[in-house]
Specification:
alpha/beta, Rossmann fold, 7-stranded parallel sheet, 12 helices, globular, binds NADP nicotinamide-adenine-dinucleotide phosphate
């Protein structure tokens, strides 16, 4: 029997992907450490427990791969899974990667190369998620509590993308294992947008006053640590803001339109869909 294994199947991207695949009549197995008991196609999967890899790959011919989150060195955990997937005859693996390579995390680049070397291996290099503006992300928590965005990125722009559009792009690649694909897609929203511009859109559309407080990279890292992120990952994530500030992330692509047949959501549409986040 053919099925798509969706790792991170309860997360922001994975949950939507599971729904889209099932709506299209494709069997999707939602994998996570805490699978929903009400879902007969949910299964337990843990990157830290390789004994969960075999049962997850059993009966699977396509995989959505969400690497271990909040890790600067995902390769050692994912490599054995990739070897096993190849032996199991998996025909397509679509990995959710990042447009931004975290500083001090070179294994992410090697991981992408290893996925692309697999049969039907595809990497989605996603830009910053619009969902970072929703709780429980620390950015959103701070807006909620203080009406403030703390950033070291200045007026630098990022091609923010809605995770629902990432999921739709992945669904297009996974629904039919025979469809021709490239090995690499840059997945972005329609426009580059700075934090001050994003704050103005939230304020204009919801009435919630959102100020932008410019802070140093170290202060940002310390805030991420305080929110519970591992220190190395917090430092790498804060350093990303330097690249944004220097204009290195001001990139947009047409991949969502090419893959899904419709343009990616704008930030204004995202805010409108989640207006209650800022009006409560
Ligand atoms: N946020 C951004 O701006 C951005 C930009 C580019 C790329 N990304 C990438 O996007 C990914 C996050 O995607 P997302 O936001 O859709 O996910 P998410 O909402 O953070 O959810 C994470 C998923 O992974 C599962 N998970 C966590 N730890 C796991 C483990 N040890 N073993 C197996 N499953 C585990 C979680 O379920 P359980 O907790 O139940 O296991 C959940 O289903 C990250 O890899 C990040 O690098 C993010």
């Amino acid at each position: 029997m053919s099925a798509v294994l969706v790792t991170g199947g309860t997360g922001k991207t994975g949950k939507t992907l599971v729904r889209l695949l099932r709506d299209a009549g494709v069997r999707a197995r939602a994998a996570s450490r805490s699978p929903a008991t009400a879902d007969p196609d949910a299964l337990r999967f843990d990157w830290n427990d390789p004994t969960t890899f075999g049962p997850a790959l059993d009966g699977t011919d396509r995989v959505f791969l969400l690497p271990p989150v909040e890790s600067v060195d995902p390769l050692p955990l994912v490599e054995p899974f990739l070897r096993r997937a190849q032996r199991a005859g998996v025909q397509r693996i679509v990995m959710l990667g990042s447009a931004i390579v975290l500083p001090n995390a070179p294994s992410a680049v090697e991981l992408a190369a290893q996925v692309q070397a697999q049969p039907g291996g595809v990497v989605l290099r996603a830009s910053g998620f619009m969902q970072n503006f929703l709780r429980p992300h620390p950015l959103a928590e701070h807006i909620h509590r203080r009406g403030e965005i703390l950033t070291a990125a200045g007026d630098g722009k990022l091609g923010w993308v809605d995770a629902r559009d990432i999921a739709a792009s992945a669904a297009a690649l996974l629904a039919d294992p025979k469809v021709d694909v490239r090995s690499d897609y840059l997945i972005t929203g329609p426009h580059g947008l700075s934090y001050p511009q994003a704050a103005r859109i939230i304020t204009a559309q919801t009435g919630r006053q959102v100020r932008v407080e410019r802070i140093a990279e170290e202060e940002q890292a310390s805030g991420y640590r305080a929110s519970g992120m591992p220190p190395e990952f917090a430092a790498a994530l804060a350093a990303v803001e330097r690249g944004i500030k220097e204009g290195r992330q001001d990139r947009v692509s047409t991949a969502v339109l090419e893959l899904t047949g419709r343009p990616p959501r704008t930030f204004a549409e995202f805010v409108s869909d989640h207006a209650c986040e800022w009006t409560q």
